[in-house]
Amino acid sequence: MTAARLQSVDALRGLTVAAMLLVNNPGDWGHVYAPLEHAAWHGCTPTDLIFPFFLFIVGVSCALSLGARVEAGAEPDPLRKSVLVRSLRIIGLGLVLHLLAWWLMNRPEFRLMGVLQRIGLCFAFVGLVAIQLRERSQCLLLAGLLVGYGALLHGGATLEKSGSLAQRIDTAVLGRFAYEWDAASGIAFDPEGLLSTLGALGTCVLGLLCGAQLRSGRVAALVVTGIAAAALGLVWSELLPFNKQLWTPSFVLWTGGLAALALAGAHWLVDQHRAPALGQAFGINAIAVYAGAWMATVLLEGLGWMPKLYATGFGWLQAWIGPYGQSLAFALCFVLAFGLLARWMKRRGLVIKV
């Protein structure tokens, strides 16, 4: 297997981004179908799979690009610099988007962490791992991350949000700059917070290992890895429940195992049997599309246009398909609008790299 860009990886990444846009833009948060919402705390809904799938693909992409260059004898210093510079760009973009939301939407506090910030941190980590460590050492690192993080969570006072180790760390370090901040009690929590980033790093390393299997043509091993990881995660969830906001080790293995199986299926369909690479246009410009959708949402909300657009453009649907169907229709149209933009960019050969 060469390091050539695989259409299946772009397609899977693109479908993941499309799913992000779908669940982030319902038009009416009071009428969202249950599978399109995150679990309130413990548990795992289909929506909870989206971000882990994306971070898993970050690891896969590093294996396909950086792994191949390392094996070809590329100098590590320029590779490390490239990884760190790109990581800083992604983090910087995330901060700019949060600044835009804070300004236009009159949010009381600026949020420091977030989706792009986590992607940037994870990319820096897994990129350096791909450059510095070989596959056996990567396996040991993954085991260490999962066992060590699991021990921290098991050793905490509680696995509930209130009083959890993650909440205490976010309160001490992030404070008012967290996603959730109670000024009266001084308690903070962020679903993309500091401690849970350890679990997210585990997802990326698992993706790195699976990407190496894909690149070397070990597709059967990829399937076995996916089944084994998902099964182990399911067993571990009896002791340490699935939890996206804590990004528990069981959640890492369960979602990573499912992502590995999805990757194997996409490879079989798209790369080997030439099925249409659905989502590829989204995948080629994944970060750009996500950022563009964020800015569109913030502008619509900040300028007060979102409620009017939803009521005027989609209100007539409520009598036909109900309020939940109306919300889903809006979300699908939002995805379609950015899908058309991504397709136009692909046809023009326009790739915006962050």
Task: Quickly list its features.
13 helices; mainly alpha; globular
Describe the protein's topology.
Blueprint: H1 7-24, H2 50-71, H3 76-104, H4 115-132, H5 135-155, H6 165-173, E1 180-182, E2 187-189, H7 197-215, H8 219-236, H9 249-272, H10 280-284, H11 286-302, H12 305-314, H13 318-347
Antiparallel strand pairs: 1-2
Helix pairs in contact: 1-2, 1-9, 1-11, 1-13, 2-4, 2-7, 2-9, 3-4, 3-11, 4-7, 5-7, 7-9, 8-9
Q: In this structure, how is the largest beta sheet organized? A: 2 strands, antiparallel
**Roughly how many Å apart are the termini?**
27 Å
Instruction: Estimate the mean pLDDT confidence.
Output: 95
Low-confidence stretches: none
Quickly give the structural class. mainly alpha
Gyration radius over CA: 20 Å
Count structural domains: 2
**What would you call the shape?**
globular
- Record the strand order, biggest sheet: 1-2
**Could you state the order of secondary-structure elements as H and E?**
HHHHHHEEHHHHHHH
**Total helical elements:** 13
Total beta-strand segments: 2
Helicity, as a percent range: 55-70%
Please indicate the percent range of residues in DSSP E strands (runs of 2 or more). Answer: under 5%
